[in-house]
Structure prediction request, 123 residues.
Amino acid sequence: MERSTAKKPLFATDDVSWTCLFAGPVAWFLDQEVSYVLVPWSCDTGHLLPTHIVSLAALLLAITGGVLGWRDWSRRRRTSSEEGDADGRAHFLALTGMLMCALFGLVILVEGVAKFYFDPCQR
Prediction:
């Protein structure tokens, strides 16, 4: 059987699909963890800029994952997500990753705006 006509296994997808699927949740997690580590330092010194930079970097990571998902989804536009082959699964993962990046990007944005209104020394 030739390589071009060989059937792909069902679980075979490229790394772009998985990257865009996990980019949003990982960006939100990193924003939360690094921000919590920086809060005592920000409270002691009064410097708020590092926590805002962390949120901006996390938002950029989520946007990058969403763009990767959109590009992967657009590349597989002719493939249906309902098909039972590897291309259909990759199409579905790209769409799901794109939506998850949008959702977690919105959460990061809301939490980033809240950092402007709340003092890190408040408990």
